[in-house]
Amino acid sequence: MKYVIIGNSTAAVGCIEGLRQIDKTSPIAVVSVEKYHTYSRPLISYLLAGKTTERKMKYRPESFYKDNGCKLIAGKSVIKIEPDKKAITLSDGKSLGYDKLLFAAGSTPFVPPIKGLDEVTHKYTFMSLDDAKALEQAIAKDCRVLILGAGLIGLKCAEGINKKVQSVTVIDMAQHILPSILDAAGAEVVKSHIEKKGIRFVLSDSVQEFQGNSAVLAIGKTLDFDLLVIAVGVRPNIHLLKEIGAKTVRGIVTDCYGQTSLPSIYAAGDCTESVDVSTGENRVLALLPNAYIQGECAGIHMAGGNKPYDKAIPMNAIGFFGLHVLTAGSYDGEEYITKSAGVYKRIVVKDNHLVGFILIGDGARAGIYTHLIKDRIPLDTVDFELIKDKPQLIAFSQSARSKMLGGVAR
């Protein structure tokens, strides 16, 4: 059996470790467009801030590929997949054959078609280690930085460079920051915290045109800058599979084992769609924990095992200047909100199930809420009045607690 993995990030690592749970010896080739050992992508902002190093960013030990019998082909892209021949062609013209293929090519930053953007000299995206290195080289103490996008990527970039530049302004057409994961009230708590660090926000507005190093806004004002960071979202890399007939929507469609609509070809990670169990809807869940689990399940199935990927939910655990933010699931339902200085909590219930939460400033025991959502535990089987205010195991039955703690239910 020959395995080939396209991609070298979280889903690929999950696949390798899934494969080796079943198949200890068959060769694995990992093709990566990046030239690096697998690394933790969320840490690139901490690299910029000087809080970590490239060595510490490695997602697995230096010996990972050797230990798992993998051949890493780094710095090469895949330009063609031929499912009939079970072969891929690399950018250097070489071919690789496979028996089972995992496509884990991730996503690409979206660059909006704004008039004059092509003429902006110093513009960057912020998604990869190379992006962080390029930005590090470009910024200076007297640099005014404009960031397009107040989502996770834009705000982490702002945090990473804040102390190294003169000013950071973040602009977004949304009414509040982090619109994909927070409600307005929660976003205001985080925004207030970030503003205290000197970062300025321009919300409910957009750039209509760039005139050199000036951004002309929809409301007519002009923002001058020295360096532009584009962080308005990402697009799943689906074109290679789409052009050979794989079923795609926004992302690549897979079953609960990561198998695509094409024989012997699997997909995992940010380029795929998953069933969000908190809503029952298919959607792209471009999140690190989901990518790993999906990759692991795919690897196990590729090697002949059986572990379904069937508990995916949108989840985020992130911090901004020391303020921790945890979110999960859907916000469609009956809500319970508590607020205090620097702390915001919203939990959402629907049809006798916890379906989502936002925890800002206090994420203690959030895993209990995540467990309730993922495992679709009916709330009338737990002491919800107790758990609503303070998540704790005592709210569960004795048998449920035993299972959660790894024991045998009685």
TrEMBL record:
Alphabetical list of PROSITE patterns matching this protein: PROKAR_LIPOPROTEIN (PS51257)
Family matches, as InterPro entries: FAD-bd_OxRdtase, FAD/NAD-bd_sf, FAD/NAD-binding_dom, FAD/NAD-linked_Rdtase_dimer_sf, Rubredoxin_C
Domain FAD/NAD(P)-binding: 1-295
Keywords for the protein's UniProt record, in alphabetical order: FAD, Flavoprotein
Highest taxon listed in the record's lineage: Bacteria
A family per Pfam: Pyr_redox_2
Molecular function GO labels: oxidoreductase activity
Span of the signal peptide: none
Gene3D superfamilies assigned: 3.30.390.30, FAD/NAD(P)-binding domain
Necessary cofactors: FAD
Domain NADH-rubredoxin oxidoreductase C-terminal: 314-376
Protein name listed in UniProt: Pyridine nucleotide-disulphide oxidoreductase
